[in-house]
Amino acid sequence: MSYFVYILECADGTLYTGITTDLARRLMEHKSGTAGARYTRAHGAKRFLYSEPYDTRGNALRREAEIKRWPREKKLALAGQTLY
Q: What tens digit of pLDDT does each residue of 38-77 get?
């Protein structure tokens, strides 16, 4: 089973980082506001900016934790986005 670490852009322009095994399902959950994370329920989900695959859940969790510590600018640079 593959795991994905992703960066999601919220409707208010903030960023959310998480992990999943199914990107399409997870985006739908975030957008529905019922099964998404509490943060995205409050801020609205817009689109994925970035994702990267991992073979193990442990590796994905470590990478997620690393990215969550980064400042916004570094997350946007990883996603290949310009600052706005």
A: 899 999 999 999 999 999 999 999 999 999 999 999 999 9
d(CA 84, CA 54): 29
User: What domains sit in the chain, N to C, each tagged with a CATH number?
Assistant: 3-78 (3.40.1440.10)
Written as one string, the DSSP assignment of 55-77 is SSHHHHHHHHHHHHTS-HHHHHH
The model carries a pTM of 0.92
Q: Residue 18 burial by CB count (10 A; 0-12/13-18/19+): exposed, middle or buried?
A: buried
